[in-house]
């Protein structure tokens, strides 16, 4: 799979697991289905951004940093909208980003190099 597709799949899977961690917070258990759907969408968005970044940069270190930042920022937006449970939202959301970045670089197929332009024979116009 390409890096973008790998990042989308991993982001969605980890996002759904991120949403399932809400079960450990008893007061939000009645909203668990909505949280899982929202976290899956958040994981897809993170995966898309991380996948395009990994395709362009093609290095593990910067992709991990980018994934960490993307995961943390998306989780922060959600935490600020909830006005609480910051650690419970930020920690798994950040892990989604860093793990998506790692899996994308480790298992995603690197982009194919561009073909070299055809050389013109010397003396030809």
Averaged pLDDT, please? 89
Number of helices: 4
Main sheet attributes: strand count, strand direction, barrel closure = none
Helix content: over 70%
Poorly predicted runs of 5 or more residues = none
**Number of separate domains:** 1
Rg computed from alpha carbons, rounded to a whole number of angstroms: 19 Å
Distance between the termini: 43 Å
Shape: elongated
Class by alpha and beta content: mainly alpha
| Order of H and E elements | HHHH
DSSP strand tally: 0
Question: Mind explaining what this structure looks like?
Answer:
This protein is mostly helical and 125 residues long. The protein has one domain. 71% of the residues lie in helices and 0% in strands. The chain is built from four helices and no strands. The longest helix has 26 residues. It is elongated, with a radius of gyration of 19 Å.
